[in-house]
């Protein structure tokens, strides 16, 4: 699948697309979509035998603080197949950091056109407390048995914060793309940019 052809959404930050890498409640295997190969790769077998409490993926055409696309957990009535793209609404964000820096996790629900099950979920507080606790617990503990890795959960933020994170990451992606184009055309010295252009 060519993920460069998938926009960030129909109307970001309100209406977004999320490319799913890991279905909810699946085996403790961390998958990542390799954008260059267009393939789902096994990133690692998780040392902690825990499963993701919601579908896990990213918003295409975004760039988060960690240099990757913005991470999203999508709450659905059934697990969504890895490699699929789902239309969503953001409802909150779990702010956290890990050994690589800031690593916020957005939480979204399916767009109302896909199901009416979440039409009353407008903010993170509208989701069941148990589910919020499970998500937080998962990210507090999923790296505990991996040497050199750690996570510090800072807490929940609302839908407005999630939407701002989307706006910021879309703008960061556009700026990065502009910088890469300038580098490729010789307007900027190659050594100035340490990341490979997309």
From TrEMBL:
Mg(2+) 2 binds at residue 71. Its cofactor is Mg(2+). One of its GO terms (molecular function) is magnesium ion binding. Keywords: Cytoplasm, Hydrolase, Magnesium, Metal-binding. It holds the Pfam family Pyrophosphatase. Its main location: cytoplasm. Its EC number is 3.6.1.1. It is an enzyme of class 3 (hydrolase). It is found in: Cytoplasm. Signal peptide: none annotated. Substrate binds at residues 30, 44, 56, 142. InterPro entries: Pyrophosphatase, Pyrophosphatase_sf. Homohexamer. HAMAP family: Inorganic_PPase (MF_00209). Belongs to the PPase family. Catalyzes the hydrolysis of inorganic pyrophosphate (PPi) forming two phosphate ions. This is Inorganic pyrophosphatase.
